[in-house]
Design goal:
The chain contains four helices and no strands. It has about 80 residues and is mainly α. The protein has one domain (about 5-80). The protein is globular, with a radius of gyration of 13 Å. It starts with a helix and ends with a helix.
Length: about 80
């Protein structure tokens, strides 16, 4: 099974349906077994839907990178505990 970091490396492409069938299968297996990544996936999908439907929100890349770094740090810390 892939790690959370490996999942996250493919996450954006997965959301945009830009991964191969083999990678999609691996990611979906991980999602089915990892609560933290499933919550991240679910929250991301809901957020994208809200932002897309409102069409009035731009999020700078630097801000999203900082959020991603914090989420991944939290995931790593939770896994170490």
């Amino acid at each position: 099974m892939i790690t959370c970091e490996e999942f996250f490396a493919e996450f954006g492409d997965y959301l945009e349906n830009q991964v191969s069938p083999e990678v999609r299968k691996e990611l979906e297996l991980h999602l089915s077994q990892c609560r933290a990544c499933h919550v991240l996936y679910d929250s991301s999908c809901k957020t994208v839907k809200i932002v897309t439907e409102s069409r009035s929100f731009e999020f700078p890349q630097s801000a999203s990178d900082a959020i991603i770094d914090r989420v991944m740090a939290k995931l790593r810390a939770d896994r170490s505990s």
